[in-house]
Amino acid sequence: MIFLRGKGIIISKKDVEEADRYIDIFMEDYGKISTLIKGIRKSKRRDKTAVDILSLTDFQFYKKNDNIIISNFSTVKDYLAIKSDIDKINMVFYIFSILNQILVENGRNRKLYEVLEKTLDYLNSSEDNRKNYLLLLYFLYIVIKEEGISIEGDINELQFEIPEQKKINLDETSKKILEYLFEDKLKIVINDENYELNSVKKAILVLENYINFNLDTNINAKKMLWGALLW
């Protein structure tokens, strides 16, 4: 029996029976894996939060037939500042909803994992809401690049094939944000507060529509982050 070890972020969970829990882990070296932790909800282990959603955890595990068996685990980061802020929780769950739709079992994507971990680290310490949403915009951009659906040329291509009723009415500021983003010049926007939050949100919705159309996903910032937007 060969034991493996690696760190990963728990992106979903489902409690079953009286004490068991299914978890999906996005691991740095092994991609997305799903496993059952038996008896954890009645465990007296002090670190059982290590197998709760939104935890960065160090795992020791082995494969038995086609199943992943966790033999040991310990918390690396628990992101308490995020868990105590409802807006940040919503942002993280929005990100997790994307990952749970695009990641495939055992599909490795180190770049996306690294961006996810850095995103959580930033959100855990940030008090700047505008910059938090710019970070979310950047995460969507990385998803587009890593999934191989990035545009070339005119930024208007982001809405070219989108059904008319789902298109976002972009103002010039939102267009400029997207142009800087795809030119890898987002720092210009970060450092200039004239690029206001509402324009950032519109840019997020454009990328969301583009991802949903091209990857057949169903991510929904209006529902998960803001409720109905009056635009």
From TrEMBL:
<dbReference type="InterPro" id="IPR003717">
    <property type="entry name" value="RecO"/>
</dbReference>
<dbReference type="InterPro" id="IPR012340">
    <property type="entry name" value="NA-bd_OB-fold"/>
</dbReference>
<dbReference type="Pfam" id="PF11967">
    <property type="entry name" value="RecO_N"/>
</dbReference>
<protein>
    <recommendedName>
        <fullName>DNA repair protein RecO</fullName>
    </recommendedName>
</protein>
<dbReference type="GO" id="GO:0006302">
    <property type="term" value="P:double-strand break repair"/>
</dbReference>
<comment type="similarity">
    <text>Belongs to the RecO family.</text>
</comment>
<dbReference type="InterPro" id="IPR022572">
    <property type="entry name" value="DNA_rep/recomb_RecO_N"/>
</dbReference>
<keyword id="KW-0233">DNA recombination</keyword>
<feature type="domain" description="DNA replication/recombination mediator RecO N-terminal">
    <location>
        <begin position="1"/>
        <end position="67"/>
    </location>
</feature>
<dbReference type="GO" id="GO:0006310">
    <property type="term" value="P:DNA recombination"/>
</dbReference>
<keyword id="KW-0234">DNA repair</keyword>
<comment type="function">
    <text>Involved in DNA repair and RecF pathway recombination.</text>
</comment>
<keyword id="KW-0227">DNA damage</keyword>
<dbReference type="GO" id="GO:0043590">
    <property type="term" value="C:bacterial nucleoid"/>
</dbReference>
